[in-house]
Amino acid sequence: MVERKNLDRAARPKGSQPVVFESATQDALAGMVLALLGEVMVLKDRLDANERLLKAAGLHGPEDIDAYHPDADARAYRGAYRAKAYDRVLGVARDKLLPDALALQADYEQEVARVAADTN
Description:
Number of helices: 4
Strand content: under 5%
Number of domains: 1
Mean pLDDT: 80
């Protein structure tokens, strides 16, 4: 069995992140685009390698891949991977542009949970 990369570690830079463009918004968007581009390139390389190996082995083709329906384990793995990928890609904007809004949302959710738990 091939060991999968640890999905619990988001590969994001640490330390100060200076503003390079005219605004933090532009920096966040540029960071999102570059992170997404990196994700797409890794995916494309892996897909290309898979297609070449399968063709060389005389196994299935694209139509078999199109007809594939993932089982529960595959769906769970894909869900976890997507969540981490979204965090890597969208986390730049979240961290730079939304910290106050996210704090307010967390406070709101805690209050809703508190009220929902109050049975009196």
